């Protein structure tokens, strides 16, 4: 497996700009809260580490990953933000419900990003089981929340650069 024993959150080879000038929204799904809280900690701590201020980080919870799309839309509609991070954890159950949620939220957050011309980051774990989720929320494969923060900062910087 290509990801076996690999820290997927290793951005040491990539330069992360300062986040001081940017405002971020974070939408966190309550489903699998032990996982999503760990994703949130990773995202929040890295936004701060790279210069974002607490007053420029706006955090809201939604019931499940399916509602992340609506949450991101509401934040961009009502707040002046440079990027929105969506955090969730969808774990396969007995039925195809998993597939519908994952596809809906992936397509949904992408559509919101295009709608507002703002970066909306897909920080959603879509795993076969809880262990895979734990491994990607601060475990052996890193923290998807860290990755989401780095991506949000880099995309906000890109948008600022191109705006001139
Ligand atoms: N099974 C998981 C869900 N299910 C709930 C949906 O996201 C949604 O809230 C519901 O269908 C009502 O619209 N959500 C997750 O985030 N993770 C899951 O594993
Ligand atoms: C991904 C889900 O919604 C899942 O938890 C639902 O489980 P099931 O497919 O067994 O109903």
Automatic annotation (TrEMBL):
Q: What are the transmembrane regions?
A: none
Gene Ontology BP annotations? riboflavin biosynthetic process
Tell whether Transferase is among the UniProt keywords: yes
Q: In which pathway does it act?
A: Cofactor biosynthesis; riboflavin biosynthesis; riboflavin from 2-hydroxy-3-oxobutyl phosphate and 5-amino-6-(D-ribitylamino)uracil: step 1/2
The residues listed in the UniProt record as binding (2S)-2-hydroxy-3-oxobutyl phosphate, with positions renumbered to this chain, are 94-95, 136
**PANTHER family registered for this protein in UniProt:** 6,7-DIMETHYL-8-RIBITYLLUMAZINE SYNTHASE (PTHR21058:SF0), 6,7-DIMETHYL-8-RIBITYLLUMAZINE SYNTHASE DMRL SYNTHASE LUMAZINE SYNTHASE (PTHR21058)
* Function description: Catalyzes the formation of 6,7-dimethyl-8-ribityllumazine by condensation of 5-amino-6-(D-ribitylamino)uracil with 3,4-dihydroxy-2-butanone 4-phosphate. This is the penultimate step in the biosynthesis of riboflavin.
NCBIfam families in alphabetical order: lumazine-synth
Name the record gives this protein: 6,7-dimethyl-8-ribityllumazine synthase
Species of the source? Mucilaginibacter mallensis
Q: Which gene encodes it?
A: ribH
């Amino acid at each position: 497996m290509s990801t076996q024993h690999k820290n997927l959150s290793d951005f040491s080879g990539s330069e992360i700009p300062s986040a001081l000038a940017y405002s971020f929204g974070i939408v966190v799904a309550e489903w699998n809260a032990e996982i999503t809280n760990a994703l949130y900690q990773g995202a929040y701590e890295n936004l701060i580490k790279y210069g974002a201020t607490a007053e420029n980080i706006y955090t809201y919870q939604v019931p499940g990953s399916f509602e992340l799309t609506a949450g991101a839309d509401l934040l961009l509609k009502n707040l002046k933000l440079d990027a929105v991070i969506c955090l969730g954890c969808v774990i396969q159950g007995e039925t195809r419900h998993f597939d519908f949620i994952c596809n809906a939220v992936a397509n949904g957050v992408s559509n919101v990003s295009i709608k507002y011309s703002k970066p909306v980051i897909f920080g959603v774990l879509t795993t076969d089981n809880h262990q895979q989720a734990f491994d990607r929320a601060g475990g052996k494969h890193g923290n998807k929340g860290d990755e989401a923060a780095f991506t949000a900062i880099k995309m906000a910087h890109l948008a600022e650069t191109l705006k001139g």
